[in-house]
Design a protein that fits this description.
By secondary structure, the protein is an all-alpha fold. It folds into 2 domains: 10-62, no CATH class; 66-100, no CATH class. It is 59% helix and 0% strand. It has helices at 10-17, 19-23, 29-41, 43-62, 69-90.
Length: 116
């Protein structure tokens, strides 16, 4: 039986956080059963899931065009550089170690400015 909920309860928040994993079938059976049980009882969450499922299906049907190889490669390289940069920051690594010269010929440590 579907009850009207406020969509703000902790169960609603957990269900909504799991929405894309649920729609992409990336949850364990136990997780899927828990989310489905919540959807069976919460109309606001069910409506959100139905909207996202329909949107995903429309996008999938409309986006059948292949990505040009050069664009795919540019995006892949850009993401790889961004990942490397975020990893360096997360590991507290400098992009240029102290004393190493950047492309402008300076080491970036003048006036207390770290290299970037």
């Amino acid at each position: 039986m579907i009850e009207i909920g406020d969509g703000e309860s902790p169960d609603c928040q957990r269900a909504l956080r799991a929405m894309y994993l649920f729609l992409d079938k990336e949850l364990t059976q136990e997780q899927k059963d828990h989310v489905q049980g919540h959807l069976d009882e919460c109309l606001p969450c069910l409506e959100s899931f139905e909207f996202e499922a329909e949107l995903k299906q429309v996008i999938s049907c409309k986006c059948q065009e292949a990505v040009p190889a050069h664009l795919y490669e540019r995006v892949r390289m850009s993401l790889a550089r961004e990942f490397d940069k975020e990893t360096a920051i997360a590991n507290n690594d400098a992009i240029w170690p102290v004393g190493e010269r950047n492309s402008d010929g300076d080491n970036g440590d003048e006036e207390g400015i770290p290299p970037v």
